[in-house]
Amino acid sequence: MKQLGRRQFPLVAGALWAAAIGARAQPAAKPYRVGVLGRLEKTLQQSLHELGYLEGRDIVLEVRDPGGKPELTDALASELVGLKVAVIVASNPNAVFSAKRATSTIPIVMMHTPDPVRLGLVSSFTKPGGNITGVTTLSEDMSIKQLELLKEAIPRVSRVALVWNPDNPWHPATVKALQARSGTLGLQVQALEVRGPEAFDRALHAMTTTQAHAVLVLADPMTFFNRRQLAELAIRHRLPMMGSLPDYAEAGSIMSYWADTGDVYRRAASYVDRLLKGAKPADLPIEQPTKFELVANLRTAKALDIMLPRSIILRADRLIE
């Protein structure tokens, strides 16, 4: 091997030192690409901004929203993986499953997802163990609380039509839990399968045939996207409807009850921040909601000649008048 002369060695060493300094001085790979699988909420953008991420400079949000067509979610998840995003924010259970099928390496931040352990998404709440972490908000308990609030708001109700989607992985267990709880509330629950908006008319006809007094809609991307159509049909059939996210009440449901969505998105942004800074999703414990929001639509109540009790009015975090 050729030996370096005395004059050459300082030059080579200096060049190596300069290269090392230059490598350390290089900025991080920015802007980070963050995939959003589902609807993009302003609260998420705002929360990321508050954490120091300026869109275009520090972060680029790649949004892929199936728009109420869950059959498109797998392809959209694969598209995000193809873009080599640093993190995927999955805004609903369907999106989480699609993202999981698309990648086992890119970190996934889940939201509005039921017990992820029972669904096989993670190993445990404290140590998820894979590439999924985030906030779990859907639960059987929350749906039971919605049923209880519906009974409290309209005491005369004895038969409740339950709109659920058999294609949603968390719905079957929740239907069973609601049916088990209904007896102690003096209620009969009629479960109606609805896979798409084309089945809304049939479902509402079945409700009136069995003389249901109210409707409870389980949270689902399909019903969420078509919430206004569903609420209008319910009002037309003189049926008060209980929803989950506040958007259902804003669309015409008489009430909604859900985890505080602003808090959920702020937590999701915090997960994105930690993951971009090098944290591993396997080590980030899954959080559960601590804040909840009850919204009452007084316009709908008036249209249906329903006087909501004072207990509901005083407890409501927001009234739509």
Describe the structure.
- With 321 residues, this protein is an alpha/beta fold.
- The chain folds into 2 domains: 32-138 and 260-291, Rossmann fold, CATH 3.40.50; 140-258 and 293-320, Rossmann fold, CATH 3.40.50.2300.
- The protein is built from 13 helices and 12 strands.
- The protein has helices spanning 8-25, 42-50, 73-82, 93-102, 140-153, 171-182, 200-209, 221-225, 227-236, 246-251, 261-276, 298-303, 310-315; strands at residues 32-37, 59-64, 87-90, 108-113, 132-136, 159-164, 188-193, 214-217, 241-243, 255-259, 292-297, 318-320.
- A 7-stranded mixed sheet has the order 7-6-8-9-10-11-12, with helices on both faces. A 5-stranded parallel sheet has the order 2-1-3-4-5, with helices on both faces.
- β6 (159-164), α6 (171-182) and β7 (188-193) form a beta-alpha-beta unit.
- α2 (42-50) crosses α11 and α3 (73-82) packs across α4 (93-102).
- The longest helix has 18 residues, at 8-25.
- It is elongated, with a radius of gyration of 25 Å.
- Residues 1-28 have low confidence and may be disordered.
Q: What's the gist of this structure?
A:
Helices cover 41% and strands 19% of the residues.
Strand content: 15-25%
* H-E order: HEHEHEHEEHEHEHEHHEHEHEHHE
Q: According to CATH, what is the topology of the largest domain? A: Rossmann fold
Question: How do the strands of the widest beta sheet line up side by side?
Answer: 7-6-8-9-10-11-12
Q: How many domains comprise the coordinates?
A: 2
Number of DSSP E strands: 12
Architecture of the largest domain in CATH?
3-Layer(aba) Sandwich
CATH homolog superfamily of the largest domain: Response regulator
What percent of residues adopt helix (DSSP H or I)? 40-55%
Largest sheet: 7 strands, mixed
Name the structural class.
alpha/beta
Intertermini distance:
87 Å
Q: How many helix segments?
A: 13
Gyration radius (Cα, Å) is 25 Å
**Sequence stretches where pLDDT stays below 50 over 5 or more residues:** 1-28
CATH class label of the largest domain: Alpha Beta
Q: What is the approximate shape?
A: elongated
Mean pLDDT: 90
